[in-house]
Amino acid sequence: MIIAKAVFEVEPWDGPAVPWAARADPWSWVALDAACTDGQIGLFLAVLASRFDVSPQDGPARIADALVAEEMLLVNGGLRVADTATGSVVVPGCCAGLESWHEWADLAAGRAVWLGHDPEPTVEAIGDDLRIWQNRGSGDHVDIPRAVLPSLLLGVRRDLVGFLGALALWGVRAGLGERTAALVEAVGAMLLPVDVRDSLTSSGRA
Which domain of life is it from (predicted)? Predict the structure, then answer.
């Protein structure tokens, strides 16, 4: 079975722990879906805000304001694909952005997609399959049938819709009040732009 998940990369911070954001191993990967805990949601927001020199110690409200004020949100990440039969896993390369995960749809049309570097994931067409290599044709790889790719991406879309729902509930519990809707809108614009929602739905029906 092939599994695709939207993931972000955990960047280390040197400050003390805060109660609203989980700690995770530096450079590890965390998946985004409806099952995310409050701590994982807080961690995601803290990593997003770190690009704007906002620290976890500033608190959820300050971080929400910083994210809503930005025109574009970026975070290291992308899609992690795994084959449960072989145990092989391929993760995004360095500098790949979670905000570009939907570009995987171009693979089904035979177009090239940049998946990061160091290691540098690459895609090789083998018959009706797309072989996703972890590092330029070597190391672990996962074979994805072209016909299966649209349904995998629709599954990622559903996960991200679920994550946005979890984020909205988190905002209420975190006491963000009216900031919650604006925060969900800002993060949603990064993860699920309107044109992407429509295109993925259409390709999945096809």
Answer: Bacteria
